[in-house]
Write a structure and sequence with these properties.
This protein has about 425 residues and is of the alpha+beta class. It has helices at about 30-40, 60-65, 75-85, 100-110, 125-135, 150-155, 180-195, 260-275, 310-315, 320-325, 360-365, 400-415; strands at about 20-25, 40-50, 70, 90-95, 140-145, 165, 175-180, 205-210, 215-225, 230-240, 250-255, 280-290, 295-300, 345-350, 370-375, 390-400. About 30% of the residues lie in helices and about 25% in strands. Helix 1 (about 30-40) links the parallel strand 1 and strand 2. It is globular, with a radius of gyration of 21 Å.
């Protein structure tokens, strides 16, 4: 039986000793290697060879940032032997593409994260919903299928106000599509199938009910307890706010004592047990329905590393990378105290104008705002946004909530005045 924590960001913290961490499939702009290296860990990239790596997973900067690299050519035995020789003491997935392989490697190194035979439970939306139902937990209504006719037949027998069509595999950069009914499902299906085919995994899609309630990002870590059973701790909870067109507007760190934070923290350990999580990080997306309570939308067994992690550490004392890597280490007696009361952390998401790059001049303006803690690389002019599923981002952080809200309003005003569109051709 898993042990839950009702106070997410004041969970026990154990000091991570530097070691060697294998980062499996560090693709999609993964910042894991640099982040772990800053904590004193030696990093080893486990890359998929070109024959097994879909075109969408071209080698990324993440792999090049590692101290060493091992190429997985299909032989698990050889890959594990090389990693053992490099003294690997922790294994994490660097992207959704690496979850299954990371679990197989971890199992053979004696560092199990979950049963490799059920690794799909740690990334597949459809399989996760089925597992929750088997465990007696509520889940969004839906169907997982590779066949359009089967999906349309289910929608006909289960009429709902709205649906969402998405890849079964969470974490791949293919945006879900809201559909009102059969005609829109039929229209969206071919394009999504083609997009999913460019990424690893199967060709399954999921059609689920469209949840009109607010959604939350819930980060957790798990480790074996003294009795060998997993202990799950929710570390931080973030509330999403969307604009009228349903684009992501802002994501706010919730205080641990808020009722919603406590409800989600009590819910997640049961979910993690149902998904077979034994060790390591999980980033989950959860909706909260007034009548049905929390509903898991998706879960991904990868570290929830983000631009806001330093602001999170300053606000709460919790260090994301240390917390993740501690799950492979014996605990010490060091405990975390509560974070400063009333400290506000907000991730503000910016949307480039269609066909135009983000203007780096905006980054220079924003960094002068008093509560700005970080801006994404594209706002520094280092890395343009090329993926429509990614947003430019500004992190606001302050012990004065009114100051955060004032800077948020300034950012949106600059956006409305055209300070975000970039140079036009």
């Amino acid at each position: 039986m898993a042990i839950s924590s009702a106070a997410p960001v004041v969970a026990p913290r154990f000091e991570a000793a530097a070691g060697t961490v294998a980062i499996v499939a560090p693709y999609g702009g993964s910042a894991h290697p640099e982040t772990f290296a800053r904590q004193g860990w030696r990093t080893v990239a486990v890359e998929l060879d070109a024959r097994r790596r879909p075109s969408a997973l071209a080698p990324a900067r993440g792999a090049g940032a590692c101290a060493d690299s091992v190429q997985h050519c299909g032989s698990l035995r050889r890959t594990v032997k090389k990693l053992r020789g490099l003294g690997v003491s922790a294994v994490v997935a660097g992207s959704a593409a690496g979850i299954g392989l990371a679990e197989r490697i971890g199992w053979h190194l004696g560092l199990p994260q979950g049963d490799p035979e059920t690794s799909w439970l740690r990334y597949d939306r459809g399989e996760q919903a089925a597992a929750l139902v088997r465990a007696g937990l509520p889940a969004p209504r839906g169907i997982r299928s590779a066949h359009l006719a089967e999906v349309l037949a289910w929608a006909e027998t289960c009429p709902l106000p709205g649906y969402v069509l998405a890849p079964a595999a969470a974490g791949i950069p293919v945006e879900p599509v809201a559909c009102a009914g059969a005609r829109q499902i039929n229209t969206a299906w071919p394009a999504m199938k083609r997009a999913v085919a460019e990424h690893p995994g199967d060709a399954y899609l999921v059609l689920t009910e469209r949840l009109s309630t607010r959604q939350f990002v819930v980060n957790s870590v798990s480790r074996p307890g003294a009795d060998g059973q997993p202990e799950h701790v929710v570390t931080d909870v973030w509330a999403e706010t969307r604009s009228c067109d349903q684009s992501l507007d802002r994501t706010d760190l919730l205080h641990p004592h808020e009722p919603l934070t406590r409800a989600l923290s009590a819910y997640m350990p049961r979910v993690l047990d149902a998904l077979g999580v034994l060790r390591g990080p999980v980033t989950a997306r959860v909706a909260h329905d007034e009548g049905r309570g929390p509903l898991l939308v998706s879960a991904l067994a990868v570290p929830g590393i983000s631009l806001a992690d330093e602001a999170l550490r300053r606000a709460t004392g919790y260090d994301r990378v240390t917390g993740v890597l501690d799950t492979w280490l014996p605990p010490s007696s060091l405990q975390l105290g509560p974070g400063p009361a009333g400290h506000r952390v907000v991730r503000v998401h910016l949307h480039p104008s269609s066909g135009h790059a983000v203007d780096p001049c905006l980054g220079r303006i924003l960094r002068r705002l008093p509560t700005v803690a970080a801006v994404s690389a594209d706002l520094l002019g280092h890395a343009p946004v090329t993926d429509p599923a990614q947003y430019a981002e500004v992190v606001l952080s302050s012990s004065e909530p009114e100051a955060v809200e004032a800077d948020y309003r300034i950012i949106r005003a600059l956006e409305c005045e055209g300070g975000h569109g970039g140079e036009r051709p």
